[in-house]
Amino acid sequence: MKKSMFLLPIAVVALVLGLSSIYVVDEREKALVLQFGQIKAVKEDPGVAFKIPLIQEVVKYDDRILSLDTDVIEVTPSDDRRLVVDAFARFRIADVVQFRQAVGVGGLRLAEDRLSSILNAQIREVLGADQVTSDTILSEDRRELMVRIRDQSRELARSLGLDVVDVRLKQTNLPAQNLEATFARMRAEREREAADEIARGNEAAQRVRALADRTVVELVSEAERESQITQGEADAERNAIFAEAFGADPEFFAFYRSLTAYENALQGGNSSMVLTPDSEFFDYLKQADIEPAGGQ
């Protein structure tokens, strides 16, 4: 009975020591075995492992890809238009030994603070570089800028035992106090462009109207010239016909001319002419055998 009383505490202590010497690492973790703060073993593969009870301790770190949102910062590109930038990063603990040596007991929280400082510094450096304007940041070229930020941050984060997998710019906006001024400048630029377009349109319209007016003058002048030429040719042909007719029978032509003159002169019901009786105008009337109206 007395012997069993001594064996039971020893068995309990042995069981506790045995259980405390066993630890499990799953596929999402990496583990360090520490002895008085010094690294004695690294466990990166999942499974069961052993340590010295009471003397050694196990510290586990997440082996998955982690996310970090940076603080909102202001950057000034080369065109001096300030932008508010909000970014996030994806990272993982690549070297647990170096990670432990870099952050100590601060763990992941301290590592995130240092990585956030690295990211902010690289964002300012890349977005504030020469020939990087706000238009570049807001265009499709921002993908190349994010790659540069990731690569430079990855190089610096290696001293922390971290691997920066990706960096993304979530938002790139103008500060609130600059929005109205920017909108006003954009409106002014658009109004200037509209005025230029209107001026160019008016100039083009004036050129078209001037060309049309000149074309009208040229066409009218050409038509009048052709009309005068045609009229001249017709007059010449008429005169030639008259001359030919006069040459063929001068007496008949003179008679015809006199009849035409009588017709033009004696129009209307009360035509009166005052001429001397021996006027040549009445030669054909004198020669005609015309009796007075009502004569016997």
TrEMBL record:
Pfam families assigned: Band_7
Alphabetical UniProt keywords: Hydrolase, Membrane, Protease, Transmembrane, Transmembrane helix
CDD domains in alphabetical order: SPFH_HflC
Gene3D superfamilies associated with the record: Band 7 domain
Protein's cellular compartments: Membrane
Membrane topology: Single-pass membrane protein
Keyword Protease tagged: yes
Broad class of where this protein is predominantly found: membrane
Protein name listed in UniProt: Protein HflC
Organism: Rhodovulum adriaticum
